[in-house]
Design brief:
mainly alpha, 98 residues, 80% helix
């Protein structure tokens, strides 16, 4: 859904702008993953990304089947990277609070 919204929101969509907009969306999802998954948030984000993009987006749903491989790879890597950044920001914020 974030990919379709980011493409529709641009007058002339480019790969980099689409990945940037979906990264911001994935940063919000990464916040939720780190908030509720305390044991392995990075592993959870990898599983969510693989099943969401590759599994349901390409194989089962065919919603992302027409998009380029570069966009699909960027989307798969975006959520784990965003989750890692959010977790690091939260841990640094907690260190500063202590």
């Amino acid at each position: 859904m974030a990919v379709i919204m980011s493409i529709d929101g641009q007058s002339e969509p480019t790969l980099w702008q689409t990945l940037l907009y979906t990264f911001f969306y994935n940063a919000l999802i990464g916040h939720l993953v780190t908030k509720y998954e305390k044991l392995w948030p990075f592993l959870a984000s990898i599983v969510i990304s693989l099943f969401g993009i590759v599994g349901f987006g390409v194989f089962f749903g065919d919603k992302l089947a027409g998009y380029s491989n570069e966009l699909l790879i960027g989307l798969v890597l975006s959520l784990p990277f965003a989750t890692f950044l959010v977790k690091e920001l939260k841990s640094r914020h907690q260190e500063q609070q202590s």
